[in-house]
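Table S2 (text version). Query chain:
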Amino acid sequence: MLAGGSAALNALQYGATEGAAELRDVLGERLGVSGGEVIVTTGSQQGIDLVSRCLLEAGDVVVVESPTYLGSLQAFRAQEARVEAIEGDRWGLDIGRLADALSAGLRPRLVSVVSEFANPSGATLSFERRRALVDLARRYRFVILDDNPYGELRWSGTSPVGLEEIAATSADDGRNDCVVSLGSASKILAPGLRVGWLRAPEEIRRSVVTLKQATDLQTSSLDQRLVAELLGDADWMDAHLATARETYQRRCSVLLDAVLGGFGDAVDVDQPDGGMFLWVRFNRSKIDTMELFRRSIELGVAFVPGEAFGSRSGRSHAMRLCFATLKSEELRTAVRRLVRAAQPML
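Corresponding structure-token output:
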């Protein structure tokens, strides 16, 4: 039963395509903007899809960091865009390589990044690279798509200033003119709550709302109400996020220790400061993680092979391990099985 009278009953009715005013105001307060600048989406994946449909035509160039999130690649390819991959490292997309490609004639319509704890690499785009990326966006007239569902799962270090804030503070009129930012309740509350949000320059926001109305009319009113109540309770959210960060930090440490203990110098892996993933690279070329995946499944353990995250081949030596779901001892068991599966290949 819903409590709250007529306001609660509204959660069972249609609502505005832009999102429920209550949730938009809560999100605006958390993000430090007006609620009117926020559009509620059905998960951040819908945000990627809507922005792709809004901005891209067949043959348009999209630059992605390599490796990158599979869902983004799928959305860009659905628009028949030409995806160009530029290598990243532990500090995110290599902006120097991007600048070289732009100087050589590459003209993207969109540059896509996951600015904090990227899926799958766990990398965070450094402040210096964020500032340089905004400068390049203005010079070469492309839009930056920043998908950031993991930023609040930081347990170490300090988050760099957001790309949208950099764009706004460096603009003559104080307005963000080149960054679309996405967020999601899926990673900080529950995956089944299909609620995300989008901030963008006004012209893009208007187009996104028109496309969303034709797609699903609106995001679930009931889900929006639940998310508004949870995000709006600052004390509860602070405690919840503190618990999530502590849990993920512990599980990450357990998984990292198990991987390094089991594989030793056969692998390279960076320790993230947050997020949900370890990006493990075998430094012996004979290790094919697609073959390793098939062997591992037979032993009851799964991971995502690296080739799923590349817009081209060349990730056959890598794999993404997730520490968000399993408990510590389960993670140790999983790695023992993984090592056993890999043993004939080492």
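Notes on Table S2: The longest strand covers residues 82-89. The first helix runs from residue 5 to 9.
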